Amino acid sequence: MGTENDYLFDIMGVLFPIMFFGILGLFVFGILSSIFQWKRNNKQPRLKVPAKVVTKRMKMRGGESHSTSYFTTFEVESGDRMELEVEGGYYGQLVEGDEGMLSFQGTRFLEFNR
């Protein structure tokens, strides 16, 4: 008859590989998703349309390598809205209510000129 320690060792022997491959799978999925989105964006035409800055937001990630992503929601003439990730420099210059010409390719922000 096994001891309690043998039982815990058996459970860890099963759970560790499941957790390892689960995390590895999520990592690979993230990389593949990014590659496919990049390819889809490259196939899209570059568009330049009149737009208005509606909202802005930041997404901060902690941990050992702290990073911040910046997003801006634009509204085009048809009333449709799209949220695009923008570089920090653009984010700081944009103000809600700004109107100008938005250039984008798929989900990729290119520039905004007032």
What labels describe this entry?
single chain; 114 residues; alpha+beta; OB fold (Dihydrolipoamide Acetyltransferase, E2P); 2 domains; five-stranded antiparallel sheet; 5 strands; 39% strand; transmembrane helix; membrane; transmembrane; DUF2500 domain-containing protein
Task: Give an overview of the whole structure.
The chain crosses the membrane at residues 12-36. It comes from Priestia koreensis. This is DUF2500 domain-containing protein. InterPro entries: DUF2500. There is one protein chain. The protein is α+β, with helices and mostly antiparallel strands and 114 residues long. The protein has two domains: 1-43; 46-113, OB fold (Dihydrolipoamide Acetyltransferase, E2P) (Beta Barrel), CATH 2.40.50.660. It has helices at residues 4-43, 88-93, and strands at residues 46-61, 67-76, 81-86, 99-105, 108-113. It has a five-stranded antiparallel sheet with strand order 3-2-1-4-5. A hairpin with a 2-residue loop joins strand 4 and strand 5 (108-113). The radius of gyration is 22 Å and the shape is elongated. The mean pLDDT is 89.
Describe the sheet with the most strands.
5 strands, antiparallel
Mean pLDDT, nearest integer? 89
Shape: elongated
Which structural class matches the secondary elements?
alpha+beta
Oligomeric status: single chain
Count of discrete domains: 2
The CATH topology of the largest domain, please?
OB fold (Dihydrolipoamide Acetyltransferase, E2P)
**CATH level 1 class label of the largest domain:** Mainly Beta
Span between termini: 77 Å
Portion in strands: 35-45%
Nearest-angstrom radius of gyration? 22 Å
Q: Which consecutive residue ranges, at least 5 long each, have pLDDT under 50? A: none
CATH architectural label of the largest domain: Beta Barrel
Helical content band: 40-55%
Strand order of the largest sheet: 3-2-1-4-5
Tell me the series of helices and strands, N- to C-terminal.
HEEEHEE
Treating each run of at least 4 consecutive H or I residues as one helix, how many helices?
2
Keywords: Membrane, Transmembrane, Transmembrane helix
Transmembrane segments: 12-36
Pfam families: DUF2500
Protein name: DUF2500 domain-containing protein
